[in-house]
Design a protein that fits this description.
By secondary structure, the chain is of the alpha/beta class. It has 12 helices and 7 strands. It starts with a helix and ends with a helix.
């Protein structure tokens, strides 16, 4: 079997290196970037979304937490408020578009606008082609949360961002969008759709100070990977929720167009120049159980 643990360690190190270099060059802090601003984070009841919310609340941002689990959201709000921050919970099943639209309308009624939108909520699924012939619904439900829910939120909050001449939309994607993800076709395709959408919308809004940021995260040690026996072997080298949450905060400080390990960028370049070779590498890893 391919040493997935070692590979993930290299990827993680590459992302750490890029973020560290950005930190050395920067001239402002998270407080400079977020204090007094309204930040909405989906998938904020646990994992990297909850960590990022806590960090942002600690520096003076008003953090709006969105997820299905109301009890956990309220716990997160209480933790932020106990440290002197301001947070509001908006429980919502983002796959219920009527509920999503109502939540977005309430956010705008309560706050007037959102300065930073973090599309972090996501659904992952591992199912190969031969296991998927009669499971079209897997693709539908994955696209519904990972892509269409994010699109509805972008459409809801972008008008005020554009009118104000400022804003940031951060999309949490997967490193598999650069490497390829055999076995995860539905998941990777849904994230790729969001990435492509952002590329087009960034071109339309390039002169408006509205920044679309794509973060290509490697494996993160969250509940999403617990059901995957392959990835359970690699959790020691996966990003912790603390590290993943800090990367979101780094993206808010630096406002990069894309944030990804150098190794991932090189692989994407190889894929564009030598796709057959890239396909053979992906296939070999897939055949060996990655």
């Amino acid at each position: 079997m391919q040493d997935i643990s070692g590979l993930i360690h290299k990827i993680k190190h590459g992302l750490d290196t890029q973020v560290s270099l950005a930190r050395l060059r920067r001239h402002r802090t998270l407080a400079d970037a977020a204090a007094g601003r309204i930040v909405l984070i989906t998938g904020a009841s646990s994992g990297i979304g909850r960590v990022a919310a806590a960090k942002l609340g600690a520096v003076g941002a008003t953090v709006l937490l969105v997820a299905r689990r109301a009890d956990e959201l309220e716990q997160a709000v209480a933790e932020i408020e106990a440290r002197g921050g301001r947070a509001v919970a908006y429980p919502c099943d983002l796959t219920d578009f009527d509920a999503l639209d109502a939540m977005a309308a309430k956010v705008l009624a309560d706050h007037g606008h959102v300065d930073i939108l973090v599309n972090n909520a996501g659904r992952s699924i591992r199912r190969t082609l031969d296991q998927s012939y009669d499971r079209f619904h897997d693709y539908e439900r994955t696209m519904r949360l990972n892509y269409f829910a994010a699109v509805r939120l972008i459409l809801a909050f972008a008008p005020a961002m554009r009118a104000g001449g400022d804003g940031q939309i951060i999309n949490i994607l997967s490193l598999a969008n650069l490497y390829g993800g055999p076995g995860y076709a539905a998941y990777v395709a849904s994230k790729a759709a969001l990435d492509s959408l952002s590329t087009s919308l960034q071109a339309e809004t390039h002169t408006e100070n509205l920044r679309f940021t794509s973060i290509y995260l490697p494996l993160v040690r969250t509940d999403m990977i617990t059901a995957n026996p392959v990835y359970q072997q690699a959790t020691a080298n996966a990003l912790t929720p603390e590290e993943g949450g800090q990367i979101i905060c780094d993206a808010i400080i630096d406002r990069p167009r894309r944030l990804a390990p150098v190794m991932g960028r090189v692989t994407a370049l190889l894929d564009s120049v030598l796709p057959e070779r890239a396909d053979s590498i992906r296939s070999a890893r897939f055949q060996h159980g990655m």
